[in-house]
What does this fold into?
Amino acid sequence: MNEPVSLPSNWVSARTPTAQPGQLIMLVTAGGKRHLIQLQPGRRFHSHLGLLEHDDLIGLPLGTTVHSQIGHPLLLLEPSLADLMTRVRRSTQIIYPKDAAYLVHKLSLRSGSHIIEAGTGSGALTIALAWAVAPAGMVYTYETRADNFTTASENLRRAGLLPYVKMHQESISDGFHQTGADAVFLDVRTPWSFLAQVRTALRPGGFFASLVPTTNQVSELLLGLESTGFADIEVEEVLVRRYKPVPDRLRPDDSMVGHTGFLISARPVVDAADPGRWLSEERKRYEARKEVQAMIAEEEERRTIERAEGGRKYPKMPLPG
It folds into this structure.
């Protein structure tokens, strides 16, 4: 899977201290509104605050305050990964940066990693994955819907990350084209239906994760992981609370992004003859309680039957000599 990767033309320029042609930059207003634009010579940026010539921005140091033609200030910045993710053109609900950042951690991604993703959606998470594995790694992403495929491809191209992504417009029912992947992530409605395909695609000791929105999906996936030889199973939820940056009156924002999904992660077991050995202690205790409860229920049923039949029957005592 270690194909040679060529750097995109804007990969280096995106990390330079000055704004360059073709680079994505962020213009932030004094009120905090953010505008993501790609600098092109001869073009103009229009907003309710006035217009800016792209030519006037090219060559300026990032972090510079610029002014529209009617005098409104804007801050010229390099966009963050969160900016790139949240400002993609959307055809589906995107995975939030808070979840994407933790996924990169849980999947142990770094430059040179090879990860398989299904489905692509609008490509917001694909951007984060490609950002993590570039420039030596690769993301292999699968999407069935043609409109999502086209939208994601354009979003990745615009972010300068398409060279680190191989896109497949097809179902994963018959498996993945890749094997020996470092990680597999599923963002599909029924991830438990594809665990056999995941095991085939993952290298020994690789990383698996999935994000689902509801508890019944979590339960189905947990049962599937337990029955197909996965261990080190975890269920987590990522919550981030923002605070108002006022030194003399620091307090939480009035609203926050709450539940966005449950993150389930696991590792494949090669010698999965006894997968129950690697269940969590909580799961083992629960199974033990179920066994005890079943024994108690069985004994209660036996006693109920005895009472209905007039109580326990003992043999008659033999009469003395």
